[in-house]
Specification:
The chain is α+β, with helices and mostly antiparallel strands and 230 residues long. The chain has two domains: 4-63 and 101-171, no CATH class; 177-227, no CATH class. It is built from eight helices and nine strands. The protein has a five-stranded mixed beta sheet, with helices on both faces. Helix 6 packs antiparallel against helix 7 (205-215).
Length: 230
């Protein structure tokens, strides 16, 4: 059994998407992960003669602005992660903006193909390029850890896109702080405004209150919030 650290070393991208993650929309990437079947380790006669191809789609939701205050209210992280966010809050301010990316995986088919992974990956890559499929990725990985290969790609794709996304968001003025709301970024203030509008036409007051608490800005909206009950 290969451990996942070793699997990372043996994973590489043959074809990388030719477009950044969308800043103001959803991005869907077709993935093709080619691996050597795990059973070849137990049957050397089949080694290098067959490959496993897994296909699917990775969907990246529109990047969202978060703050250290908000991150401290997201469950599921370790104590160390929360301590890190607290240090960021102390250093840069509780409402200093950052970008959060959310992904989902929609697995497709699994096929056993004749040929070695590198050759199959190159062939798929050429076919995708010929069809001008710019939002696709072809990866050679390790069978037991194919999803680790996918996560490695997601990390690298995010890292390659974040500067572009940040620039577009900043250029749109969405990271500008609004002093009257404790320097909350414009994007978040706009989001809260939409939630108040939703409540005015029957939306959930409880969800609005929870969101204000998550951002740590209830005190700035308290009078307006209580006015909803008059």
């Amino acid at each position: 059994m290969v451990d996942w650290n070793k699997a990372i070393e043996q994973t590489y991208v043959v074809k990388f998407p030719q477009q950044h993650l969308a800043t103001f929309g959803i991005t869907e990437i077709d993935y093709f992960i080619v691996t050597e079947p795990v059973y070849t380790a137990f049957n050397p006669s089949k080694q290098q003669l067959e490959s496993v191809l897994r296909t699917g789609k990775v969907k990246a939701n529109q990047p969202h602005i978060i703050t250290p205050n908000y991150a401290l209210n997201i469950s599921g992280f370790s104590k160390s992660a929360y301590e890190y966010m607290q240090s960021i809050s102390y250093e840069y301010g509780p409402n200093s903006p950052a970008i959060m990316y959310q992904y989902s995986n929609d697995p497709g088919n699994l096929e056993i193909l004749n040929g070695i992974p590198t050759e199959i990956a190159q062939r798929i890559s050429k076919d995708l390029s010929d069809r001008n499929n710019h939002l696709s990725v072809v990866i050679v990985g390790v069978d037991e850890f194919w999803d680790v290969a996918l996560l490695k790609f997601i990390y690298e794709y995010t890292a390659a896109s974040i500067s572009f996304n940040s620039q577009e968001i900043r250029s749109a003025g969405l990271l500008d702080p609004i002093e009257k709301y404790g320097n909350l970024p414009v994007a978040v203030v706009n989001q809260i405004e939409e939630m108040f509008k939703s409540v005015s036409v029957g939306g959930s007051v409880e969800i609005l209150k929870k969101e204000l608490d998550k951002w740590g800005v209830y005190q700035f909206y308290e009078d307006r919030f209580l006015g909803l009950f008059k």
